[in-house]
Amino acid sequence: MVSTPATAAASGRQYLPVLNTENPSPNQYLLPLTTRVNGQNHLEIGGCDVPALVQRFGTPLYILDEATLRTACRQYRQAFQTYYPGESLVIYASKAWNCLAVCAIVASEGLGIDVVSGGELFTALHAGMNPKTMYFHGNNKSVEELKFAIDTGCTIVVDNWLELQTLAEMQQPVRIMLRLTPGIECHTHEYIRTGHLDSKFGFDPDQLDQVFNYVSQQSALECIGLHAHIGSQIFELQPHQDLTAVMVQWLGKAAQYGLPVQELDIGGGLGIRYTEADDPPSIDEWVKVICDGIVRACQAQNLPLPKLIAEPGRSLIGSACVTAYTVGSHKVIPDIRTYVAVDGGMSDNPRPITYQSVYRTLVANRMSEPLTQTVTVAGKHCESGDIVIKQAQLPETQPGDVLVVMATGAYNYSMASNYNRLPRPAAVLVNAGEASLILQRETYQDLIRQDCLPERLQQEP
Ligand code: LLP
């Protein structure tokens, strides 16, 4: 690929949020809502100068904007209050980014939480979340995890027969939801589609009668709700509208079996903008479609309105964060490509190599300089596929520049690894000019903390 100059007039400023509406939906912006360029021509987020944050905390660095995360939480809650006449609850799908500070923020905004492992549950509990608003998902929960969930008093979203039978045999009173596969297709990457029939998640809808019948005979199992999730990074509204009709049908059937089902959890899935080409609906539009769909279907079937639950992850936190890297080596292959390497890559953001995800970038200390080159931003891992961005438009860059990748709040830190024994990055929370560390940078000592060296392998000093 030939390195081509970008339009001379363009600079990193083109990505800045233009907040021309009273209620900007964070998932429709490439950068956190507080982003601006300051007097030094530097990128500023949450009132903090990004190059200064990098000096203080090092790179790679996740920079999470508290105001943007809180705005998204409020918009979800507000939209449900506006469009749904019944009770509702928004729960954060914490697989997107689970750590103490993030859990504490969403809890303080009145959200509940979806956890998918003992580890996520443990973290949410330590952040002080109320177990009554916790929902435990997963297609292969261990017996230990089930016991942990029962002891904490959270609701278990039962995925399959083995789990159902295991819980029934435990004979301990527990609130459950049943996860069902709705058989709804949506256009997203095949790895993040879950609602189609050939999915590892949930009971097959053909088994509905059998499952409801079984559950109705288990005195320890209090089946309070039904759950479905059709996939992630979805831009269409139709699949979720279809889902509301399917779920209300299930609700009617559950009532026939005398199950005390009062909650419907329609999952998450609303997409976010990673590039200018992405055009997701706003949080408000998404919630409205769901509320209208449920209300209409319940009226048609003469059913009382259930408590309506949604569990967004990406659209709550994805756009609230950027990752800052330090630019290092360059490699120019004439007439083919220029590589610009950064000090992270697939270990802090495995999405490009896993889903071919496309990101946008800018140079935080050169915000007004024209974008003069198209380069490939490479990670530092020993893997040719470790490419952060295939075609990035950059100003002339030097080693030491601060390259920022946008919209990295969801499924970056939570999917990070120590590949090549890279310590995982630090994360800071920025708000009104203050930066607080929320994840310490791992150290080399952390890397060997779990290592065990059997005595017979120990070398003489
Ligand atoms: N509920 C359930 C049961 C889920 O499985 C998921 C996501 C969500 C809610 C939240 O979906 P969201 O609102 O974030 O779209 N690692 C992939 C995404 C995997 C999504 C897994 N489930 C990625 O990086 O794109």
UniProtKB/TrEMBL annotation:
Gene Ontology biological process: lysine biosynthetic process via diaminopimelate
Subunit structure: Homodimer.
Swiss-Prot/TrEMBL keywords: Amino-acid biosynthesis, Decarboxylase, Lyase, Lysine biosynthesis, Pyridoxal phosphate
Family: Belongs to the Orn/Lys/Arg decarboxylase class-II family. LysA subfamily.
Active site: 382
HAMAP family, per database record: LysA
Entry binding sites for pyridoxal 5'-phosphate: 269, 311-314, 411
PTM sites of type N6-(pyridoxal phosphate)lysine: 95
Domain Orn/DAP/Arg decarboxylase 2 N-terminal, chain residue ranges per copy: 69-317
Protein name: Diaminopimelate decarboxylase
Record keyword Lyase present: yes
Cofactor dependency: pyridoxal 5'-phosphate
Pfam families to which the protein is assigned, alphabetical: Orn_Arg_deC_N (PF02784)
Catalytic activity reported: meso-2,6-diaminopimelate + H(+) = L-lysine + CO2
Superkingdom as given in the UniProt entry: Bacteria
Assigned EC number: 4.1.1.20
Pathway: Amino-acid biosynthesis; L-lysine biosynthesis via DAP pathway; L-lysine from DL-2,6-diaminopimelate: step 1/1
The keyword Amino-acid biosynthesis is annotated on this UniProt entry: yes
Binding site for substrate: 314, 351, 355, 383, 411
Molecular function, one GO term: diaminopimelate decarboxylase activity
